[in-house]
Amino acid sequence: MTRDGPFPDPAPARLTVGIVSAGRVGTAIGAALERVGHVVVACSAVSDASVRRATVRLPDTEILPAADVAARCELLVLAVPDDELAALVAGLAATDSIRPGTLVAHTSGANGVGVLAPLTAIGAVPLAIHPAMTFTGHDEDVTRMSSACFGITAADEIGYAIAQALVLEIGGEPVRVREEVRPLYHAALAHGSNHLVTLVVDAVAALRVALAGDELLGQQVVDGDPNGVAERVLAPLLSAALDNALRRGPSALTGPVARGDSAAVAAHLRVLDEVDPQIAAGYRAMSLRSAQLTGASPALLEILEDHS
Q1: How far apart are CA 304 and CA 289, in angstroms?
Q2: Judging by beta carbons within 10 Å of its beta carbon (0-12, 13-18, 19+), is residue 263 exposed, middle or buried?
Q3: Boundaries of CATH 1.10.1040 in the chain?
Q4: What pLDDT, on the 0 to 100 scale, is given for residue 299?
Q5: What b/e readout covers 273-290, taking b as 16+ CB neighbours within 10 angstroms?
Q6: Mean pLDDT of all residues in 48-61
Q7: Cα 45–48–52 angle (5° rounding)?
Q8: How far apart, in whole angstroms, are the C-alpha atoms of residue 145 and residue 77?
Q9: How far from each other are the two terminal CA atoms of the chain, in whole angstroms?
Q10: What predicted TM-score, i.e. pTM, was given to this entire model?
Q11: What pLDDT, on a 0 to 100 scale, did the predictor assign at position 57?
Q12: Distance (Å, rounded) from C-alpha 168 to C-alpha 162?
């Protein structure tokens, strides 16, 4: 009901959506848009994996070449890898597939709207809408987007309003990112998320070696399977450490580096090197950065800078 009478508020405008291509990000965004009433009318899919993904996530969507996808929609989502985006835009601009007024949004974190200039020149409305989220290709992708932030960049306030509305509609939080700082924005996200995965994988590998051959409650402790004992030991510790870091910054650092315990750090480097010199090298590099944040003693810095 409206405040002024008995008639219901009009439904927000529904858009016909096209997606290039049917990767993890594109199909997740398509599914999220369909959940709120938009219609994904077409998508492009080249590989067998992309075709299967489109069939599962967007079962009512027609699979077409990219130019045909662009011709059928009011909102075109370009969800291709960063290094393929410019060529795709140039190719689409060379066709007559995109009508003036078409919303064209890419999902690249590293790029703003400048990369869409060839399409902007023929009347498209350029948007950069990057979900600050990792995508696995599984069901949780769509759910996670409803609590994620999206880095948005547009050419003007109208574009920002459109991008913000789309993000809010699927449950995300829009965050403005200026065109000139998109590379730095992307670097920060990649450093935090990608390197966190590497760090955890190395920690799991070392802990599996440490626990190998032991038994817990009559059960083999390490069997090499994902989500084993090593993962269960680390999960609550890592979750707490991440929460503390986001809440308290550098003051959340604990452990031998924060305490300035040079002997413990030296022992860690020795035993990790026996397991895998590359894991030891990663530990050394991260410990050095941690030591710099905490103002560590010269003795500890000397240990960490050795052979770095």
Answers
A1: 9
A2: exposed
A3: 185-305
A4: 83
A5: bebeeebbbbbbeebbeb
A6: 93
A7: 75
A8: 16
A9: 67
A10: 0.87
A11: 93
A12: 10
